[in-house]
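Could you help me review a protein record that somebody else here produced? This is what I was given.
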Amino acid sequence: MLRMNRTALYELVWSRPMTEIAREFGIRDQHVAQACDYHDIARPRAGHWQKIDHGKAVERVTLSNDAFSPDDIIIIDSTGWKIAPALQDSDHETAWTASAP
């Protein structure tokens, strides 16, 4: 299971490929991608890691905080993803503001 705020998830997806992240946390890379897309977290485009491997320059898209707070907590497990606002009690199901489709 992966549980972190939007800023930390943004940094993580720009630090290594989604398949490595998924393997490390025991989750599906599709769930990571879906959570990023829903919560407006930019992620590397196809070919990004190959360009890095070959020493080419890549552009990193900044994290947009227009729709979501950078402190919102995102939880991704084997069943999908959920978000819990940082100021609410994330131990209670009523605190969830969104869940995977």
